Amino acid sequence: MNINTDYDVIIAGSGMGGMSAGAMLANAGYKVLILEKAHAPGGCSSSYFRKGYVFESGATTLIGFDENQPLWKLEKETGIHIPREEITPSMSVWLGGEQLTRYKDREQWIQECIRVFGNANGQRAFWEEALAVSDLVWKVSLKNPFFPPQKISEWAQLAINNNPLDVWVLKYAFQSVEDVMQKYGVDTPKFRRFVDEQLMITAQAKAHQTPFLFGAAGLTYTNYSNYYVPGGLLEMVNTIRAFIHEKRGALHTKEGVEMIDRDGEQFTVHTQNKRKEKFSYRSPIVISNIPVWNMSGITSGDVKEYFKSESKDFNDAWGAITLGIATTDTYPDDLPLHHQIHLEEGKTVPFTNSDSIFVSMSKREDTDRAKEGSRTLNISTHASPEFWYSLNGEYESAKQQVEEFVVKKLAEKLPGFADSEIDVIHTATPVTWENWVYRKKGRVGGIPQSMARSLLNWTPHETPFKGLYLVGDTTYPGQGIPGVTLSGINVYSRVIKNHQ
After folding, report:
1. How many beta carbons lie within 10 A of that of residue 96, not counting itself?
2. What does the alpha-carbon distance between residue 377 and residue 363 come to, in Å, rounded to a whole number?
3. Amine oxidase domain: from which residue to which, for each copy (predicted)?
4. Which residues, 6 or more positions from 480, have their beta carbon under 8 angstroms from its beta carbon?
5. For range 354-383, the mean pLDDT
6. pLDDT tens-digit profile of 176-200?
7. Cα dist from 153 to 114, 156, 316, 333, 497, whole Å
């Protein structure tokens, strides 16, 4: 067997966690190889082409470039500049017939909440607390790359790295968002519905399940700089890819990892490409950007048993139904690019338990994504993977019903959509997503937040097997482009510490 030993680090999967770790390591002098099974890099943070249009993998926003945030750190350390344009306001939320605008300016946002939800004193107190916690969480997260701590020395480092005056924030690891809402007297049905739906797209859980320590950042992300990448998120990934190439590294698409074998302090990674050709690579360092649920299927022996044990408590995770729609551009000039549309009370998207849909639109002037006079829309809603895998003969009919329902709701709720003509439409379910990004059962968005899971119970970046690391949304700190970028930075820090 011919084994390639040219690389210092092998990274399985090219999501933003793996790309961030790869860029940081390449910048530090490591020769990096990233292996991606799909035809395009980026995983859930990517774009795809369909009938002359460019769609995002899912409806999504992009933050993380402000000071003390992960993409700011990535650019600062490497010199990479990800092409982007700030958008403001970043988002509208449609509650019944009412539009709630998610302003970046903090005072303007608090006034908007007072207008919509009333209780001026309670709303101000709640949002000031959330913003203070969020600001501190971002700052502290970058200062503590060895979190959650796994060794005595890392516990000691926590004490050294952190200001004792910041310890007040830790109490919110044990208080839910619901608890804080009740403390400030803002837990009304209308505000609870708003908060629950915001948390579902940022934490994969609702107010009673989400610790305020995480929920604060999830609720306030629109109060930081939000960005749009011209041409689609794939351009962000390709910018990082080009940097890794400049540093002697490589990214192979259409070449998936089939098995990771451990041999002493070396790992052999076996792959297969789309032409069924097989390759093997050996390195002392392997970073897996593959979800923890998938890992037992590509490992053996005690490594396999470790991942079986590590993932057994995390089988309840969300999938997504996504639609890509290209339409004529009949939208108002002042319409934001992102929208969360709440369904009527008691209504859900067919064949899901989801009572909202999230919409991201291409910019009018972005003719790389849509021809002039047209726009692309990406729509996402939560769905149970297990349900969609059980449909069998009813699958296509259910998929069609969801598509028709979403189109009808967009016509009712999204200004300008009813006047547009649809040129392209396609719908993806969790089954599609597994075939697309190879995540087990099409689970996307990481592991839902839970009050029952302490900060120390997150799947760690460093495994018990020297040289094998994990990155991505099923490790700390979880989902979202900033979250997985932070996990990439943390893995980089562990590799530098352990292998220099």
Report:
1. 12
2. 10
3. 16-491
4. 202, 473
5. 97
6. 999 999 999 999 999 999 999 999 9
7. 47, 5, 33, 55, 12
Question: Is it the case that residue 291 has pLDDT exceeding 80?
Answer: yes
End-to-end CA distance of the chain: 30
Residues with Cβ within 8 Å of residue 198, at least 6 apart in sequence: 93, 218, 219, 340
CATH of domain 9-47+230-314+445-499: 3.50.50.60
Residue 150 pLDDT greater than 90, yes or no: no
What local confidence, expressed as pLDDT, does residue 313 receive?
A: 81
Q: Are 35 and 13 a contacting pair, CB within 8 Å?
A: yes
- For the chain, the maximum distance between any two Cα atoms, rounded to a whole number of angstroms, is 70
Instruction: List, as one string, the DSSP characters of 204-253.
Output: SS-TTTSBHHHHHHHHSGGGS-EEE-TT-THHHHHHHHHHHHHTT-EEES
Query: What's the CA gap between 90 and 61, in Å, rounded?
Result: 8
pLDDT category of residue 1 using cuts at 50, 70 and 90? low
pLDDT of 152 reads 85
Burial class (CB in 10 A: 0-12, 13-18, 19+), 192: middle
The residues near 68 (Cβ < 8 Å, ≥ 6 apart) are: 135, 138, 139, 142
Q: Are 77 and 146 in contact (CB under 8 A)?
A: no
Residue owning tokens 């050709």: 277
- Token match 């099923």: residue? 474
Which residue ranges make up each domain of the chain? 9-47+230-314+445-499, 105-223
Q: Which pair of structure tokens corresponds to residue 148?
A: 């959650």
Q: 446: phi > 0 → left, psi -120 to 50 → alpha, else beta; which?
A: left
- pTM value surpassing 0.70: yes
The residue type found at 300 is S
